[in-house]
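re: ur question from yesterday

yeah so i grabbed the chain u mentioned. its 379 aa long if i counted rite. heres the sequnce exactly as i have it in my notes:
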Amino acid sequence: MGRRTASGALVALGGLVALLAIVAVWVSRQALETDQWTETSSKVLQDPAVQTAVAGYLVDQIYANVDVAGQLRAALPERAQPLAAPAAGALRNAAEQVANRALDRPRVQAAWEAANRQAHAELVDVVEGGGDVVSTSEGVVTLDLKALLTQIADRIGVGGRVADRLPAGAATIEILRSDQLSTVQSIGKALKPLAAVLVALALACFAVAIALVPGRRREALRACGIAFVFAGIAALVVRKLAGQAVVDELASTAAVEPAIESVWRIGTSLLVGVAVATIIYGALAVVGAWLAGPTRWATGLRRALAPYLNDARIAYGALAVVVLLVLLWGPTEGTRRPLPALILIALLVAGFELLRRQVRREHPDAVRGAPEQRVLTRT
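ran it thru and got these structure tokens back, copy pasting raw so excuse formatting
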């Protein structure tokens, strides 16, 4: 009874650690991997709601730092000068529309991608600061979007006439202040190994939980699979609740709410992928536990598969084909990365071999072509 209690406690602990591992994997990859950061930022700019918000921000930067009405007034005849302010307002609306369309163009999106790639590469080493995109001048880390603004200004038609008049602080976004740098550095150093440690700890909890109950390992495996499923579902629930809080906190007006929702949805798409993969892995463990169980369908299926599972060449040949197809498909994050893929393959092979041994014990004389093996016997 004590072993079963300890096994159940380890399964529960493993499920909690698996939930933390899902979040850690997402944060570490999203925050610390430049390729992932750049890919996500590119998807963000391709979203229509974000394009509208960015276009509005860049045009606001032009109007906040340049007296567009004054420039128009100076260019108009004296009798038409009263029309300068209305014309500037009309030009603003047109500029936002042109900027919105420009942000959908590959050239402008490439400028955005390049700025984000350079920014993230330097932010990883943020304590040293500097560079053209990221700086720590006056104790503030900033992302400089002036190159993107210049692209938009060219599309609008003002080009250098306006861009040259912009002050140094225009089109820059404050990321964090110098008093936060040590905290960011500490978090970054902790995140690198944390994801791997949590994944290993979750798997260790499940392995020990199964080993503690020799006579009930199938039930323990099923419990571990269910814990994985719940961890994935819990991560999706946390994402939804956190998303609502983030949108409510950051959306200063209803107009920017769709853009913030889009950024959160795209930025957490990797979290969804990891959570869904965890659910799939848990479901496979549950299916494996069922296949090894005493139900009529499970015993009948084992009987039907016995001639093929007893032949190692056929069994492992079929498994190799399935593994190869899954790796080529890459349906989950784990199957698209070498180390997680190797771990998954090792676990799959171990479970497959255990199933083969069980089938050999139950049907040692099963051979292909025997009449009783041609159909699934329902008993």
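noticed a couple things. The longest strand covers residues 172-177. also Confidence is low (pLDDT under 50) at residues 127-134, 371-379.
anyway ttyl
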